[in-house]
Design a protein that fits this description.
The radius of gyration is 36 Å and the shape is elongated. 49% of the residues are buried. The chain has 36 helices and 26 strands.
């Protein structure tokens, strides 16, 4: 993977890769860009020809026609087409050919619907770029479309802008950039212009760079464009998305395995039947039709369509529970999920900084403490703050500052009243060097100076402390207690800020820190964090009970990630969990093979890049696990696409992450993932029931035709088999997809990748039930031949019996081993209705004049119908006896 990345960047200029390490003057010389005037029109034209447009390449998608044609490359479809051709040209049975072609076309249409996945991820990435950018060109400041930017352009940024390209900062005034969508770090990053000396600094550590698609939340800047389009970090993610491996879902793998097994069986049985028939002296054309009839009988033509319908029913049920499935196989894949690799920010946490602890008057309290609106700490934090209230009453500003204002509002602090009473008349803006912000406000005939910032920096400037409303000198014991509380909060992964104030006689015209930020009165500390979602911990516990492992992946620092993981129950509380936390730097030192061995031990990954997330998902997959990846940012998109199932966030998620996902959570609730897993397990169980029903029916048909050929009987025609497979198979199989989930579904371990539709007794059931169906059909044909001599009556009774056998048998497969009569055998109203509808369609072609001639059948008498129904119902009796035997054997085992 590293080699691939190196190859990808080999065409880039050295200054593009090393921009964050270079001195500004050195970079400007390399990029040949005059900072005062910007590029000329001629320079822009030349660079556009060399570098292209500042836009992302869009992957070409296959058309619906191409998808439709692709459906006909399946072996079983080819068998059916061959059957249609032989029916038409060899025996001139055009109605057989029409029905076969109808089946093929319907299956192809369903396949196209299933595979027409929305490929919006890269298109959404393209739309992320800011529509406009302010640049210096030809000595003037111009506003241009962002796709017109070229490397070397001088861009002006201010709060509220979306960064239009990757850029190196030349000037930065109190600049903060929110990079969560790219790095996963929830707190806006303070930016500066100093070169980075670290050789391989990660994106989150490049403080002098800003990246395409991120948001300026505070301050102003001037920057030079270093990369555009597909050369940006967002472009790199787009390239990863375009070249991500398209892994098959467990459902698709099961269907492939089933198809291969059926193929071998079909070829073997058809070949043996063809040879046996020829040896018995039957015509080649006749035996060719018989062999094709066998192939038609063995192929579960309706299975792809039925699987799709059952999955669609699952998607509807999930949508009602806030899980929106974008690709149908994802429904079943969720049920087999063994590992959930979850992004932290916005997924397990709220992506909303919140004050959790406050320290004042020498005491530490949690956020539920009642604080007076006159509290000096509260006032300092609110007044030295740039947060604004919009027309709808929503807080707008830096997340750290809005957290302070929200905390004050929760304490019923009169925000608007204080803003009017204490207007800001002067300020010392925040900068990353002194890490403080101060504002001046009129107070009677004097002025109130409010200061907030880093505790270690602020404490150095304090000479007094306010305690219970009284101001006294700050002692060394006070300093130790404050620093101890600061350390304690920091160990809990809280971001700690301090507040202080001072009463001034006047306000300087040009305030300087060394003059005004001195002899301050310490007011207290606040500790804040992006808190975990309330329901996430419970959902993780439920997932654990279901045998599903939750792994947290984040761009935050290791200490923050570990603290959140402990609070969520991903890591045990109160233990030395550092060994279960891996940083991106540590991961970078490991080979893919080492990571594959190490990954089962690691529960938390911190400071990771998009490439790291993909490697983590792949490592779990190489351990044979079915992996779900959840996330909401651009940086999550490649891993979302690589995972067996990608889960995006509908509210906080970017369009990129949603476009790369298989499922989107409408409520951004981690708990919904667990609900979806339960639904997925139910869907797999129901598909398994449909498979058991269809294959036991088809196996019965194969046995019927094979044995009949050996005996020289002409028992069923291809049109009979197709009608049974289309009508009496499809509706009950769909109805079986509406069975309720079994009560203990979330107490079971996830199924292994090696398991299939035929696991857990299903294969054995298919075999003995198919033998029963075939044996009973052959028996009634033999009996009709012996005792009734009307034309086509034997074939008709065999046709009717085989169809009705399957309808009665559909109730048997409600459970593999449990007796049908343990509960209410008619509790599935859809199955009851499907059985009646199928019986109507089956019997209708036998008793309706004109149609029965088309099918070459003769209506039986009432007595003959009684025999057909009696033999057909006996399948329930025989299967109940077999189930009782199997239950006894399982108890003894």
């Amino acid at each position: 993977m590293k080699d691939q990345n190196m190859e990808q960047k080999s065409t880039r200029k050295v200054w593009q890769d090393k921009a964050y390490q270079m001195e500004i003057a050195q970079l400007l010389r390399a990029v040949e860009s005059p900072v005062e005037t910007g590029l000329s029109t001629a320079d822009v034209a030349k660079r556009q020809a060399e570098y292209g447009s500042n836009a992302l390449e869009v992957e070409k998608h296959s058309s619906l026609l191409e998808k439709f044609i692709e459906q006909f490359k399946d072996f079983m479809i080819i068998i059916l087409l061959a059957a249609a051709a032989v029916s038409l040209f060899a025996s001139h049975e055009w109605h057989d050919a029409v029905i076969i072609l109808l089946v093929v076309v319907l299956n192809a249409i369903m396949g196209v619907i299933q595979e027409a996945k929305a490929e919006e991820a890269i298109d959404a990435l393209k739309e992320m770029a800011s529509p406009d950018a302010r640049v210096r060109r030809n000595g003037n400041v111009e506003t241009i479309k962002s796709h017109e930017l070229v490397p070397g352009d001088i861009v002006l940024l201010e709060a509220g802008d979306i960064v239009p390209a990757d850029m190196r900062l030349l000037e930065a005034n109190s600049l903060k950039v929110e990079e969560a969508a790219l790095t996963g770090e929830s707190v806006p990053v303070d930016k500066d212009i100093a070169p980075i000396t670290l050789e391989d600094a990660g994106i989150g550590d490049r403080k002098n760079m800003v990246y395409s698609g991120t948001n300026v939340t505070y301050g102003r800047a001037v920057a030079v464009v270093t990369a555009i389009g597909m050369d940006t970090e967002v472009g790199h993610i787009a390239n990863m998305l375009a070249h991500a491996e398209k892994t098959k879902t467990p459902l698709q793998r099961d269907q492939d395995r089933l198809g291969k097994s059926l193929t071998i069986m079909i070829l073997a049985i058809a070949a043996v039947t063809f040879v046996v028939g020829l040896l018995r002296g039957r015509a080649i054309t006749d035996m060719l039709l018989v062999s094709i009839s066998l192939a038609v009988a063995a192929i579960p033509e309706g299975l792809p369509a039925i699987s799709t319908i059952i999955l669609s029913l699952g998607t509807r049920s999930m949508a009602e529970r806030k899980a929106l499935v974008r690709t149908l196989p994802a429904v079943e894949t969720l049920g087999g999920t063994q590992v959930i690799c979850s992004d932290k920010t916005g997924t397990l946490t709220l992506n909303q900084m919140t004050i959790e602890k406050v320290y004042f008057d020498g005491k530490s309290q949690d956020r539920s403490a009642v604080i007076s609106v006159d509290n000096p700490l509260l006032r300092s934090l609110v007044l030295a703050n740039d947060t604004k209230l919009d027309a709808e009453g929503k807080l707008i500003g830096d997340p750290t500052e809005t957290a302070m204002v929200q905390f004050a509002l929760d304490q019923h602090f009169p925000l608007q009243e204080n803003a009017s009473k204490y207007p800001r008349v002067q300020e010392l803006p925040f900068d990353s060097t002194r890490k403080l912000m101060s504002t001046f406000h009129p107070l009677g005939g004097e002025f109130l100076l409010c200061t907030k910032g880093a505790p270690d920096q602020l404490l150095q400037r304090c000479s007094h402390i306010v305690e219970n409303g009284e101001v006294r000198p700050l002692t060394e014991e006070d300093r130790k207690a404050i620093l101890s509380e600061n350390t304690k909060m920091a160990r809990e992964a809280l971001r700690v800020l301090a507040g202080a104030y001072q009463i001034c006689k006047s306000v300087p015209d040009s305030p300087r820190s060394e003059d005004v930020e001195q002899n301050l009165i310490f007011a207290g500390l606040v500790g804040m964090i992006d808190p975990e979602r309330k329901e996430a911990a419970a959902a993780i516990a439920v997932a654990k009970g279901a045998g599903v492992r939750t792994v947290m992946i984040t761009g935050d620092h290791a200490e923050t990630a570990q603290a959140i993981a402990e609070r969520l129950g991903i890591l045990p509380m109160g233990e030395d969990n550092r060994c279960h936390v891996l940083t991106g730097a540590e991961l970078e030192m490991m080979s893919d093979e080492e990571l594959e061995k190490k990954v089962p031990e690691i529960s938390v990954y911190a400071r990771v890049s998009p490439e790291h997330k993909v490697r983590i998902v792949k490592a779990w997959q190489k351990n044979g696990k079915i992996v779900s990846m959840t996330g909401d940012g651009v940086n999550d998109a490649p891993a979302l696409k690589q995972a067996d199932i990608g889960v995006g966030m509908g509210i906080t998620g970017t369009e990129v992450s949603k476009g790369a996902s298989d499922m989107v959570l409408a409520d951004d609730n981690f708990e919904t993932i667990v609900v979806a897993i339960e639904e997925g397990r139910k869907v797999f169980s129901n598909i398994q029931k449909a498979v058991q029903y269809l294959l036991s029916a088809n196996f019965g048909e194969v046995i019927t035709l094979f044995v009949a050929t050996l005996l020289g009987w002409t028992i069923l025609q291809p049109v009979h088999i197709l009608w049974i497979n289309l009508v009496t198979d499809v509706f009950p199989a769909i109805a079986l997809g509406m069975e309720k989930a079994e009560p203990d579904v979330m107490q079971r371990k996830p199924r292994e990748k090696s398991s299939s539709f035929l696991s857990n007794g299903v294969l054995e059931s298919i075999l003995y039930q198919g033998v029963l169906e075939g044996g009973l059909t052959l028996f009634i044909y033999w009996m009709a031949e012996q005792y009734f001599h009307e034309e086509n009556l034997s074939e008709t009774m065999a046709f009717a019996t085989l169809g009705l056998l399957q309808l009665f048998h559909s109730f048997n497969v409600k459970s593999v081993f449990r007796s049908l009569f343990n509960g209410n055998p008619l509790d599935n109203i859809y199955l009851n209705g499907a059985a009646l509808l199928s019986a109507f369609l089956l019997l209708g072609v036998i008793i309706t004049p004109g149609i029965n001639q088309f099918f070459d059948v003769t209506p039986p008498s009432l007595m003959q119908w009684a025999i057909v129904f009696g033999i057909s119902f006996s399948i329930i009796v025989f299967v109940e006896i077999a189930k009782a035997i199997f239950r006894t054997m399982r108890k003894q085992a």
